[in-house]
Write a sequence for this structure.
């Protein structure tokens, strides 16, 4: 009851061909494939940008730690004088 037989699929295929025509079906398939390709490319670019942003954000934190260490070293020198 939940699955389609070969006869059902043939009827569906015939309706699709009647609605869109034989020339439109390859164009539709090509459009869907191109859309999927663009979507995957956008996801990959987004991940690359996120990785780059994470790396850039990590650098100032290490720089801040160096500044804090330098500042505490200067403060210790002033106390010892």
């Amino acid at each position: 009851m939940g699955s389609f037989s070969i006869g059902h699929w043939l009827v569906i295929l015939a309706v699709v061909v009647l609605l869109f025509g034989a020339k439109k079906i390859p164009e539709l398939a090509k459009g869907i494939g191109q859309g999927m390709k663009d979507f995957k490319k956008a996801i990959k670019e987004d991940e690359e940008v996120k990785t780059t942003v994470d790396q850039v954000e990590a650098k100032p934190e290490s720089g801040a730690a160096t500044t804090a260490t330098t500042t505490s070293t200067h403060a210790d020198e002033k106390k010892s004088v």
About this structure: The two ends are 91 Å apart (CA to CA).
